[in-house]
């Protein structure tokens, strides 16, 4: 797959906004887009997103463990809800960390700080997927799957063996793609890029006066923006010049959408917005900062929608060919992305493109009866069209 060194294609731009008495900070300050995501103060880098890099690495080990029937449910639960010092991972640095995946699932300020009912329900859904995988799929690892019975199916032509539950769901894919939405996307769009987080307490005055966090080189506002950046670029070998496809989560699928000629340029748009928004924080221009956050919200949301529709349509095609194992794999990826649509963000609003109730209705629809064993092309087309229409692209555009 074609790689894109994003910063190599970026020409430094200048954005000047008009001054207004209603704007926060020095809104009239000119902001230059840097060529790379590099910022410093007194000769020291002010960019830091190590916590995001850690959670991405935890996610990689966790979703790999979901495909290994040697793990128990207790071990998987412990990886998901890691406690500092527990020997949950192969990587000792991850074991020493105080970070966890579960604590950041459905945990954004804008969507879940006052909505613990939905937050708990979403966490419980992940717990249920983990339990189903460990209890039912692992225990039927060597059995041939059929409608109503968990087990394995091999893709046509001696291809990959897929391990599915009684409804044909490849649960490790539900979890992996669900994390892209409930953790990475939710934290970027609805937490760290939210004015409620960026401007919390004395963040504006401290940023205006270059007051940094104790023992650090960055202001709190700078750090919050970097943490959003880290959930997309935190696994890059060199995040100042990202190439994408650096992890199995948002980075991989931004790369996939970028490779589709109908959506080419989306990766550069997002990277440019991250750079300009961060530069705007340095310049104390919060009008420009917030405009860039809106661009990021719209385009990262679109990545989830495009890949969701792509996999639903690919699954439909393979179902017609009779390769159930491959079809169920594609559909599991697709509905993992569908589940993640509740964490997207419509620019200029405090709402996702699809509400939790709408997403729950989609998931209930595919879970009825024998699940994927019973699913029809008409159902897949209807859901695909509903998503594409909401995001203002066509189903045909996602098929490449």
Automatic annotation (TrEMBL):
This is DUF4856 domain-containing protein. Residues 1-19 form the signal peptide. PROSITE patterns: PROKAR_LIPOPROTEIN (PS51257). Pfam families: DUF4856 (PF16148). InterPro entries: DUF4856 (IPR032331). Keywords: Signal. It comes from the Bacteria.
């Amino acid at each position: 797959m074609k790689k894109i060194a994003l910063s190599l294609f970026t020409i430094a731009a200048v954005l000047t906004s008009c001054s207004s008495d209603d704007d926060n900070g020095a809104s009239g300050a000119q902001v230059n887009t840097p060529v790379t995501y590099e910022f410093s103060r007194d000769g020291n880098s002010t960019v830091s997103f190590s916590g995001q890099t850690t959670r991405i690495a935890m996610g990689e080990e966790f979703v790999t463990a979901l495909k290994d029937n040697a793990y128990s449910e207790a071990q998987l639960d412990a990886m998901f809800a890691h406690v500092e010092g527990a020997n949950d991972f192969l990587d000792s640095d991850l074991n020493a960390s105080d970070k966890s995946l579960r604590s950041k699932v459905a945990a954004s300020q804008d969507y879940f700080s006052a909505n613990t009912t939905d937050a708990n329900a979403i966490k419980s859904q992940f717990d249920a997927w983990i339990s189903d995988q460990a209890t039912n799929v692992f225990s039927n690892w060597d059995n041939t799957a059929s409608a109503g019975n968990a087990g394995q199916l091999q893709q046509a032509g001696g291809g990959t063996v897929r391990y599915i539950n009684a409804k044909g769901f490849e649960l490790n894919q539900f979890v992996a793609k669900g994390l892209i939405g409930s953790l990475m996307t939710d934290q970027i769009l609805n937490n760290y890029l939210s004015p409620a987080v960026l401007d919390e307490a004395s963040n504006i005055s401290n940023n205006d006066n270059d007051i940094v966090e104790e023992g650090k080189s960055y202001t709190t506002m700078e750090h919050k923006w970097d943490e959003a950046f880290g959930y997309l670029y935190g696994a890059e070998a060199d995040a100042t010049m990202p190439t994408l496809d650096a992890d199995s989560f948002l980075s991989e699928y931004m790369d996939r959408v970028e490779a589709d000629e109908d959506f080419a340029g989306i990766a550069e748009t997002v990277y440019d917005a991250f750079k300009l928004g961060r530069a705007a924080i340095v310049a104390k221009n919060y009008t420009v900062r917030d405009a860039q956050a809106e661009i990021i919200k719209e385009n990262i949301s679109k990545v989830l929608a495009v890949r969701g529709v792509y996999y639903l349509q690919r699954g439909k095609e393979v179902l017609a060919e009779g390769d159930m194992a491959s079809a169920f794999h594609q559909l599991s990826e697709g509905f993992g992305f569908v589940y993640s649509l509740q964490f997207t963000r419509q620019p200029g609003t405090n709402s996702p493109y699809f509400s939790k109730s709408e997403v729950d209705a989609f998931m209930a629809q595919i879970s009825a009866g024998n699940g994927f064993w019973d699913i029809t092309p008409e159902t897949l087309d209807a859901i695909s069209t509903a998503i594409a229409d909401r995001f203002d692209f066509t189903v045909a555009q996602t098929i490449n």
